[in-house]
Amino acid sequence: MSGITDSFNGNAKPEDIAQLLKDKLGAIVSTDAQILKNHQHDWWSLSAIQDFQGKQNPLPLAVVMPESTEQVSQTLKICHDAGIKVVPFGGGSGVCGAIKAEEGVVMISMEKMTGLIDIDKQNMTATYWAGTNGMEAEKLAEKDGLTIGHWPQSIEISTVGGWIATKAAGQFSTANGNIEDMVLDIEAVLPDGTIINTKQVPRASAGFDLRQLFLGTEGMHGIVTKVSFSLREMPESSKGQAFAFDTMEDGLDAMREFVNAGWKPPVVRLYDTQETQRQFPGKCLPGKKLLVLIHEGPKDLVDVQMKNVKAICEKHKGWEKNSKIAAHWLEKRNKVPSFKELLEKGIVADTIEISATWDKIPGLYKKVMAAVNAVPGVALVGAHSSHSYRSGTNLYITFAAKPDDASKMEETYKACWEKTMQAVIEAGGSISHHHGIGRVRKDFLKDEIGEEGIELLRKIKEAIDPKGILNPGLLPAKPGNVKKPDNQPKIGK
Fold this sequence. Notes:
Strand content: 15-25%
Number of strands: 19
CATH topology of the domain at 116-233: Uridine Diphospho-n-acetylenolpyruvylglucosamine Reductase, domain 3
Number of helices: 16
CATH class of the domain at 116-233: Alpha Beta
Shape: globular
Low-confidence stretches: 1-10, 482-488
Largest sheet: 8 strands, antiparallel
Helix content: 25-40%
CATH architecture of the domain at 116-233: 2-Layer Sandwich
Structural class: alpha+beta
Radius of gyration: 23 Å
C-alpha cells in the first residue's frame, strides 16, 4: 500500500493521523477521550504514581479495536506505510511499563478479538483469539473437563495474548510449566501487515522456532492474534500441605531435594518471615518461614507425593502445619490492594520477580533485603519463592515505602528498583523471571545479556520492523547514537 492519501503532504498532525485511520478503517477507530485515557498505559506502578501526582503524560492519538486478524493486518499495513508508531494493548495488566503511549502512538486494542475458536479433546488442544480474558479462557476449557493449567495472579484481568507477550508464569508452574511449555502454535501479524502462522504440532526440529519471536518480546515483533494451548485433564485429586522452617536455607534445601527427587507439587511457595506474617497472620510463630504446597493429579499419586515430600521437609528441620493454610492461600491469593489505595496513604509499592540457581539464591536474598532496606522511607521488604526447577528457583520480592515528602515518591520508587537490580546482578541472578522487561528494567538489560546480546536483539528487530513502528522504545538506544526527534509520520509521501 503506497500513496495512502493524496490529500495530505508533509509532516502529519495528530488529527491528520486519526482522520486517516478513521477514513481507512471506519468504526473500529476511536478518539473518544475516555477510551484514549483507558489505553494510555499498563499497570506499571510508576505510571500510577505519575497519574496520582497529576503528571500529564501523552495519550494515544487513536485506539483501533479490530475484530479480525485481517483488520489487524490492514491497520498495520496503513501504519507501516505512513510510519505511524503502534503499540498493542491486551488486558493492560502488565506491570513493567511495556505499554505506554509516547508521542505520536496509536494503540491497537485486542478487546474485541475474544473467545474460543476451537477445542479438540482428542488432541487436548484449545485455540483462542488473543484478546480472550485469562479466566474466561480457563472456564471455557473446564466445560470439557480440561484445564490450561496456567494461573497467573492476573488471570482475571490479563489476556492469553498478553501471556505470550510477557512470557508469563502461573502459580501452578512447578508441575505445569510456564507459558512457553503450554503454547502449541501462534498466529501473529508482523509490522508490515504480513500474517504468520506456526504449525500445531507437539514438537518440531525444523530450524528456528518462530514462536520465540513473540514469546517475551512484548509486542515488538508482531501482534499475536490467535493462540493454541496444549491442555491437560482436570486433576482427580487436589490437596494442600504446609510446613514451617526456622530458616530460608532449610526451606530452600527441602524444595531443591524434593523437586529433584521427582516430586513436583504444582504450587510450591516458601515465604520469608516478613511475607509469612503479612500473608498468614497468626498461622505461624514469629520469625518462622512458611512453605505452602498444593498437590494435584491422580489420588494415589497425590497421596504418595505428600508422604515423600513430608519426609524430605522433616529431614530439613521442617514441621508440618495445618493444611487449611493452603486453602487460605487459595482463597486470598489474588486479592491485593490497588496502587491508588496505597498512594492515597503516601505509600509506594511494587513487586519484583527474579531467579537464580540454587547455590546463589540464599546470598541473593540477603543482598536484596539489605539493599532495599537501606533506601530511606522503606517500611517493608519481603520475598517468597513460587516457581521452582531442577536447577534453581525464583524470588518474588515485595517492597513498600513511605517517603517523608510526597514529592519523593517517584525517586523512592526508582531507588528501590535500582538497589534490587544491582543486588541481583551482583549475586549472579536474572533480573526478571516472568513479568518481562518493559521500561522499568530496560537500563539493566545489558547486565543480563551483554551489549552484544542487545545488539543482536536490535538486528532482529530491524530485520522484522525496519521502520521501527511496533512498540518502539523498549530496547536500549545504541551508545552514542540517540536519534533526533525528526521521524514524524508522513502521510501522502
